[in-house]
Amino acid sequence: MPQYLTTALLALSLAGPATYGAARQPAMLVAEESAPALYQQARSAARQGNPQAALRLLKRAVATGYYSPETLQEEGDFAGLTSQRAWPRLLAQARTRQQRYEAQFNQPLLTLIRQIGYQDQQYRRVAEEADRTYGPDSPQLRAAMQQQGKLDNRLIRQVDSLITVHGYPGKSLVGEYQQSVVFLVIQHNPDEKYLPLLTAAADKGELRWSSLALLVDRLRVARGEKQLYGSQLGPAVNGHYQLQPIEDEPNVNTRRAKIGLEPLEQYLKHWSIPYQVPTASHNPNPPAMYVTPRPATTEEKSPIELIGGYEALYAQLQYPAAARQQHLAGRVTLELRIDKQGIPQDVMVVKSLGGGCDEEALRVMRAARFLNHAGEDHEIRINLPFPYEKEKGK
């Protein structure tokens, strides 16, 4: 999915909790009817314009599952329920259940996790609203994500410190409601180094596998591979999102179901993508629905060209004293937009190194200039090495 739209709403309400208590239900109902099933039925009833049925189903889902008031309020399908008299009572029910459940956990740690969760979503919610109001290419959306990018850099460092002390702060430490918070921060700062930690946490039930699937897809796309679960979208083209290519696409819903994700066609409705799962012999979706794979030959006629070349750019990097003292080495990853004049805009750090390296990378990149052969804005991602050594400067 677009990075700015990886919200708590999507990671929690779409994935659903991993385990639930037994639902209180009349004998005529199917015994396996779980809180996630009730929640999805409530969404369906709300979409069909049946608020009374939706509220009844939601009340039972909240009583047996782990749905916070914020999750209910942020669910777009429930917008029509907010005017119902029973809505405030439902939110109060969800709040009371959450407070009673979370009373058993370390309260200072929970408070910190909640703060991290709020900051991880602070400007993403603004971006989401800008997407709805002004469109996916709007300057309002870009401005919100530029602010979020600054927060993300601080949050990933805070998360690294938390992991050093506690390991992954999952279900046993912070409970069902907050188990995905640290994952979301990592998801917004994707790095292969976290995958073993998160896989082990998912195997132990500390993190939902349905959440981890988002990171698996994102890392595969970053490596130029096809995704497995269909969670990742490309940038908007002419106001419409495209789907990143999927490996073994006819079986995508089988893989999604195994880890508790809803069918892909339902998931993609959130971005107005009218998707149909292909068969082994036929794909009914138009080619324009998918991001065009990059050719294997990487440096063929790029639409933009860095003036002076990358060696000269790297040579301008000064290795900060703080990074030297901490023996920091690695790369700072930047995302930016090259405008029609070849000037970098909206430069932000998406993978931090710390020790002053982030600030130095931003300084050098903002001063760079490009030839823009395409004549239109172009988004790129660049890795800057610290410390830079000429013989290793690629």
From TrEMBL:
<dbReference type="InterPro" id="IPR046732">
    <property type="entry name" value="DUF6624"/>
</dbReference>
<keyword id="KW-1133">Transmembrane helix</keyword>
<keyword id="KW-0997">Cell inner membrane</keyword>
<keyword id="KW-1003">Cell membrane</keyword>
<keyword id="KW-0812">Transmembrane</keyword>
<comment type="similarity">
    <text>Belongs to the TonB family.</text>
</comment>
<dbReference type="InterPro" id="IPR051045">
    <property type="entry name" value="TonB-dependent_transducer"/>
</dbReference>
<dbReference type="InterPro" id="IPR006260">
    <property type="entry name" value="TonB/TolA_C"/>
</dbReference>
<keyword id="KW-0653">Protein transport</keyword>
<feature type="domain" description="TonB C-terminal">
    <location>
        <begin position="304"/>
        <end position="394"/>
    </location>
</feature>
<feature type="signal peptide">
    <location>
        <begin position="1"/>
        <end position="22"/>
    </location>
</feature>
<keyword id="KW-0472">Membrane</keyword>
<dbReference type="Pfam" id="PF20329">
    <property type="entry name" value="DUF6624"/>
</dbReference>
<keyword id="KW-0813">Transport</keyword>
<dbReference type="InterPro" id="IPR037682">
    <property type="entry name" value="TonB_C"/>
</dbReference>
<protein>
    <submittedName>
        <fullName>TonB family protein</fullName>
    </submittedName>
</protein>
<dbReference type="Pfam" id="PF03544">
    <property type="entry name" value="TonB_C"/>
</dbReference>
<keyword id="KW-0732">Signal</keyword>
